[in-house]
Amino acid sequence: MSETTMTGSAASASPSDEDAIIRVRGLTTRFGPQVVHDGLDLTVRKGEVLGVVGGSGTGKSVLMRTIIGLNQAAAGTIAVFGQVRGKLEPAGGRAREQRGGVLLQGGALFSSRPVAENVQAPMREHADLPRALMDELAGLKIAIVGLPHDACAKFPSELSGGMRKRAGLARALALDPEIVFLDEPTAGLDPVGAAAFDILIRELSDTLGLTVVMITHDLDSLYAICDRVAVLAERKVLTVAPIAELERNPHPWLQSYFHGPRARAARQARQ
Amino acid sequence: MLRDVSNISDAPLVGNRGGDSQWLASGTGPALRLSGAWTVDNARQIDRLIRDLRVTPGGFRQLDLGAISAFDTTGAWLVLKLAERLSIALPDGMTGAQHGVPELLERVSSARAEPAEPSVRENPFVAALARLGGGTVAALREMASMIGFLGAVVESFAGVVRRPGRLRLTATVHHMEQAGLNALPIVGLISFLVGIVLAFQGAEQLQRFGAEIFVVNLIAVSILRDIGILLTAIVVAGRSGSSFAAQLGSMKVHEEVDALRALGLDPIEVLVLPRVLALFLMMIPLALFANLMGLIGGGLMAWAALDISPTLYTDRLAAAVTLPTFLVGLIKAPVFGALVGLVGCYAGLKTEGSADSLGRQTTVAVVQGIFIVIVVDAAFSIFFNIVGF
Fold this sequence. Notes:
heterodimer; A: alpha/beta; six-stranded mixed beta sheet; about 40% helix; about 25% strand; globular; disordered N terminus; B: mainly alpha; Transcription Regulator spoIIAA; 2 domains; about 70% helix
């Protein structure tokens, strides 16, 4: 992140920013000539469930990957837990990794290890735990995300897509992170499974004070569990607001998004 | 130890690791006071604390969670373990829990219900016997499955022969270039070097009898009958057998093979046949090239070490080599090519959905490919010997 500039990092400190856990300012990312984000700002507050929506190709996944550090930003600052990225000592970088969990699309489990070892992988690398306790904790996380006990010994290729996602979440939660990033966690799940997933995430957020950043196209999830929703369009975050406010936003994309037949059904289901 | 403990629980649960580990609790009341951060960062120390805890009858009957400063699912798990150790029933036996803590304990304890199944220790003799039996059955199944695969390819080939329009010409030509044409430099170089080695080693031995000139026969017969072809097949197995296995294996992992089937296409016809056919056809020019380069290498060495001039070399060559010698070698080439292609594709299609499996199958493609080529070469030698070529 050598090209990072300080523009705007200290500029805005509105009251709501006090409890910001992630603060993205003036973020620009590009792949060759293609500009994905141009001067994007986003603030994630502690303990909230933030949904990220946007049409295909608006750079939702790229934004998440950039915040996590899998992508390099061309310009702008990203502050996670109050520390600006790229200015961290290596040790600080490791500490931050421990405080955040990630669920990538499709689960991204290590295919050559059984589920239990997948969940233990972050524990083994970052926490100094005795073997027996790691086994117990892996079993616990696997049970918490709603997988049956016999899934522990199975390999990712033996699981269904939905189960793989749950296992991925168990791995993301392995070290009890303060923030988790979820990339389309309910895509491809059956409605019952998706609803259970929603409830689980809401519960974790309530009981653990977990902050959740969730890319989703699932309108049910947006209505059911998101405190606020960030809308990506025109290479920026168009707006961040509770869903009730977004429905009244006159922007054409939002209008078609929230007033299509599927949105109506999801809204009715909530009422 | 005291310092370790201090950051998880200040006064209440203090241990000394002296002669006999003794655990003390603050106050005389029935409540054990937990304090500090009960999180994954301190899990190691807390776990040790709980394990070393000496339970006295009629000791603690309550857990006071009021002073816990940070809590997570790992901490909740440990609290439950501690409660179990002290035979305290939660949630009745806890006091002072702050917001969120009872809910989290409830969540974790409901997930905890099933205990891990104890691992069954089996008789080592029986286990060894079972492994042997399992291995034998697996090997037999593997053999049957390989023969089945061969049958499927032959059937598909027969279909293409009857209706040549079904042959994937573009794919076949592509693989002919990839596996055949692009292999020419390495095949030629290796063959050339082996020709040199052969001439040199042969010359040393034959010089003792004053029969240097027969080194030409040695080179010609060994390269043309066997070594040129065998080397080509081994190089192709390492180069193309492995790449076929990796290509098909990766397609298998990403469900591309299933997608073909779902579209009503036969993976054997679309994927396997062009590759096997490409190797079958390209092995002949490859082997010819290898023969040529081997003879050139041998000739150069004979010239340099034994002073056999190129003219003399070619004269002797023409006398030593009969057409059958040449054909006996060349006829094996396409057979080897097809075998390497078949083994590579078979290994690729046997891949299961993991990175490990893909790596294993690629290795299998090369090792089995080379093995089968050598076995078949030996069989050819015996056969030609019997029929008198």
